[in-house]
Write a structure and sequence with these properties.
707 residues, alpha/beta, binds alpha-methylisocitric acid, methylisocitrate lyase activity, Isocitrate_lyase
Length: 707
């Protein structure tokens, strides 16, 4: 292996420059609110020598701007959870961000699906982010290419979606120890995430979804998680946003009492009782019918409460008032609280937080808004956005939480999740209050709002409807209720509504680009014969065929519709001419008699139109012919670049539409009736000079097409 050929001075100078660069970066408006417990030098020393660039940074800067704009204007972003790139592509039209939910991934992206216990592999959510991000990049490439195929003036009519929607993702509790959090962060940044959240739930103890005994980790462990993620983002030099989610609002347990800051929320028995885990063990051995009932009974008999509540229960009012003053707002461990109580309260306080501990060692925890606020305030400097995850959307708690955090961090960005199980009316919301809920939250700085698990209800509901329709009405139901509606609302160049156009131009362009190089270099052509980018643009030929009738049954059964016959003829002809054989031909077919005609959006992608024959006559007074005549006039006037060809009836109707006046129709019924037979024609010199010599019934297409 070669050694790095650098003097020690040069190495030191490079390192110092890197440190300086990081320090400058941390002073930028995007970074300056973050307070790191480590130095720039530490980060510089943790970096490798090859600087990398991440899409995550661009997406984060975009989201950062969007959310700050919302914050300034008192508005908000409304998004929902998604794991599927097809759904994500449609969301781009209405949402400014996407959410990849851990719960959804746990149901749909793992080999062992089930309730969200965060027991899936660490890379599950990052992989979904990667999948969606790649799909976004593809859509943006596909759309850009399609637009560049069109002349500048035509582009204003085309769709131009911003498919690069920033992705917010669920990092849950970091999936393991701190090194797992570091690795997961790396996966997220590499996948292109704009922001991800970390919560303070305990690994391996997550219970879905509402309450039912959630367990949090000590404050210090939560802050370490956030620091681990922030450190890795800094090592990567990325702008990735970190959302600090806090779950203490609905937690029943905490894993440890190692952090003094948590002590005032930990509950203990205030009478000497047998330990809960032993009582439960005995009940299980005795095959007691309800362990839950035994537990509830024990909690009652143990008079479970926090130490401060225990003091209050036995102290006089004056003693308790003295006690609270002395405890004050500063952190006081249980040991310090006991000492203060001993000094002030005449009776002895019995308090034992070990007696209620679970079999797994968890302590009972008294969740309340103050506890959430305290954690959120400690976490805020490490992250960019704050989220208090609540089991029940209690409005008073929401107001209290957001105002208390804002008192310390006035410009704080907040997030809120409309968890799927929320029962708004039970939580006291009137229909009006539900309506204004998002904007009321926005007024408190909640700039990012999400319904994380919409898909569980939404996709189930829509799929169930379609499954029924398909079962009952088959292809007719599909055509009427899905296909026609999808095609009517969306232009053909967009999304996935018309599968044959979803990126087919882009796909063809790859072939064309390769083939063009082949023509220029591979087959000996001179460079000057290569097509320029401008000449290359329209090399795809798209022909629309308007079917004005159906062939007689025998022909139809063998050769299909007139449009199919034209397509076969033209493809065969093109295949025989080397210049044309390289051009991808696209055909779309319209049932003219049903008045299905190309929309103006579709016309922008069409090069030529063929109007077929029909048993009808151009002057017949039927609605579809009137519609066709209007269409032809509009086409002729507004789309001069589209070539029009009429065969038989098609030719008649063209002449009728373009040259008849109300007093002088050019196409009439022959008063002598039908005429059948062979009629010699003479080609005018102008025609011959334009298309070249034509023998009657040419044997080779080249006889017609060669100039
Ligand atoms: C956001 C969430 O973490 C998720 O996995 O989507 C869940 C969703 C839910 O419970 O509805 C959560 O809020 O915990």
């Amino acid at each position: 292996m070669p050694k790095i050929n650098q003097t020690l001075d040069a190495e030191q100078a490079a390192f110092d420059a890197k440190v300086q660069e990081i320090e400058q970066w941390w002073k930028t408006p995007r970074q300056s609110h973050i307070q790191r417990p480590y130095s720039a030098a530490r980060i510089a020393s943790l970096r490798g020598l090859l600087p990398q660039k991440y899409a995550s940074s661009d997406m984060a800067l975009k989201l950062w701007q969007q959310l700050n704009d919302h914050r300034k204007n008192g508005t908000h972003e409304m998004t929902f959870g998604v794991t599927d790139p097809i759904i994500a592509s449609q969301m781009a039209k209405y949402q400014q961000s996407l959410y990849v939910s851990g719960a959804l991934c746990g149901f749909s992206e793992v080999s062992e699906p089930g309730m969200d216990c965060c027991d899936y592999p660490m890379d599950t959510v990052p992989k979904v982010v990667d999948k969606i991000m790649k799909s976004q990049l593809w859509h943006s490439q596909r759309q850009n290419h399609y637009r560049m195929l069109q002349p500048k003036e035509a582009r204003s009519e085309l769709e131009n979606w911003d498919y690069l929607t920033p992705i917010v993702a669920d990092g849950d509790m970091g999936f393991g120890g701190l090194t797992s959090t570091v690795k997961m962060t790396k996966l997220f940044v590499e996948a292109g995430v704009a922001m991800f959240h970390l919560d303070d739930l305990a690994i391996g103890k997550k219970k879905f979804t509402v309450g039912q005994g959630r367990t949090v980790v000590p404050t210090s462990e939560y802050l370490d998680r956030l620091t681990a993620a922030r450190m890795q983002i800094d090592i990567m030099g990325a702008e990735t946003m970190l959302l600090c989610r806090c779950d203490v609002d609905h937690s029943e347990f905490i894993t440890d009492v190692i952090d003094d800051r948590d002590h005032k929320y930990i509950q203990g028995a205030t009478v000497p009782v047998h330990p809960l885990r032993e009582v439960l063990k005995e009940a299980a051995e005795a095959e007691s019918s309800s362990l839950l009932a035994v537990r509830v009974e024990w909690i009652k008999s143990a008079k479970l409460c926090t130490f401060d509540e225990a003091v209050k229960a036995i102290a006089s009012d004056s003693e308790f008032s003295l006690y609270t003053t002395e405890v004050g707002n500063k952190i006081k461990s249980l040991k310090q609280r006991r000492e203060i109580a001993k000094k002030i309260v005449s009776k002895e306080v019995f308090f034992d937080w070990d007696l209620p501990r679970s079999r797994e060692g968890q302590y009972f925890y008294n969740s309340c808004v103050t506890a959430v606020v305290e954690r959120a305030l400690l976490a805020a400097p490490l992250g960019d956005v704050t989220w208090a995850r609540m089991d029940v959307p209690k409005w008073d708690d929401l107001v209290s939480f957001h105002t208390q955090v804002q008192e310390v961090f006035p410009d704080r960005l907040f997030a809120f999740g409309y968890t799927g199980d929320y029962d708004y009316s039970t939580a006291g919301f009137t229909p009006e209050a539900i309506k204004s809920f998002p904007s009321d939250l926005a007024k408190m700085g909640v700039a990012w709002q999400v319904q994380p698990i919409w898909a569980l209800q939404g996709i189930n509901y829509e799929t169930e409807r379609f499954a029924k329709l398909w079962r009952e009405r088959g292809i007719e139901g599909y055509v009427e209720e899905i296909q026609k509606k999808a095609l009517a609302t969306k232009p053909m160049t967009d999304g996935f509504e018309k599968p044959s156009y979803s990126g087919s131009y882009l796909c063809d362009a790859f072939w064309d680009t390769i083939a063009v190089r082949d023509v220029g270099e591979g087959s000996g052509g001179k460079p000057s014969e290569r097509r320029t980018a401008d000449q290359m643009a329209p090399i795809r030929l798209h022909i629309a065929v308007l079917d004005c009738d159906q062939p007689v049954p025998k022909v139809y059964s063998q050769r299909g519709l007139y449009s199919d016959i034209f397509e076969t003829l033209l493809r065969n002809a093109a295949a025989q001419i080397s210049e044309l054989s390289r051009i991808p031909l696209g055909f779309s077919k319209y049932d003219c008699v049903q008045e299905h005609l190309p929309s103006s959006q579709e016309l922008s992608g069409i090069d030529a139109i063929i109007i077929t024959g029909s048993a009808a006559s151009a002057y017949d007074n039927v609605p579809w012919i009137h519609t066709l005549i209007h269409f032809i006039r509009d086409l002729y006037t507004h789309h001069p670049k589209i070539h029009i060809f009429g065969s038989c009836f098609g030719h008649q109707v063209l002449c009728h539409a373009l040259f008849s006046t109300s007093i002088a129709p050019v196409v009439n019924r022959d008063p002598l009736g039908w005429e059948l037979g062979v009629h010699p024609i003479t080609l005018s010199p102008a025609f011959s000079s334009h298309v070249g010599p034509v023998t009657s019934n040419p044997k080779l297409p080249s006889q017609v097409l060669n100039r």
